[in-house]
Design a protein that fits this description.
The chain is mainly alpha-helical. It has five helices and two strands; from the N terminus they run αααααββ. It has a two-stranded antiparallel ribbon with strand order 1-2. Helix 3 crosses helix 4 and helix 4 packs across helix 5. The longest helix has 14 residues. The mean pLDDT is about 80.
Length: about 120
């Protein structure tokens, strides 16, 4: 068939049957329009972080037929409005093992506990 048409065979495979559909215009909701949604979610669920708030926000927007938003955008909006959760300080073990084991007398039996993969092992 390619010889009869005087066309290379690779050209026959590259021809698309239909042109792909063009995308519509890019639509994005303004920040001022998103803030009431975010504030309502944070008021109803004060322990939720920005990722959960973003998931609930996207569900709400999808119900209304609006485009979703990125979690990084939700983080930025919540940060500028002071809606982020307060970070809790790290708890440190006050009885940290420094690697030295001291005994009162020599030739005395001793034991220690240490945590490996969430299991306590006694030696």
């Amino acid at each position: 068939m390619a010889k009869a048409l005087s066309v290379s065979r690779s050209n026959l495979y590259e021809r698309p049957e239909l042109a792909p559909e063009k995308r519509g215009p890019y639509t994005k909701i303004d920040d001022e329009e998103l803030l009431p949604y975010i504030i309502a979610i944070v008021d109803s669920r004060p322990t939720y972080g920005y990722r959960r708030v973003g998931a609930l926000l996207n569900r709400k927007l999808q119900e209304e037929g609006k485009p979703g938003v990125n979690h990084k955008r939700v983080y930025r909006l919540m940060k500028t409005q002071g809606l982020l959760l307060v970070k809790t300080p790290q708890r440190h073990n006050s009885r940290a093992h420094n690697g030295k084991i001291e005994t009162d007398e020599s030739d005395k039996r001793w034991c220690t506990d240490y945590l490996t993969n969430n299991r306590t092992i006694t030696l």
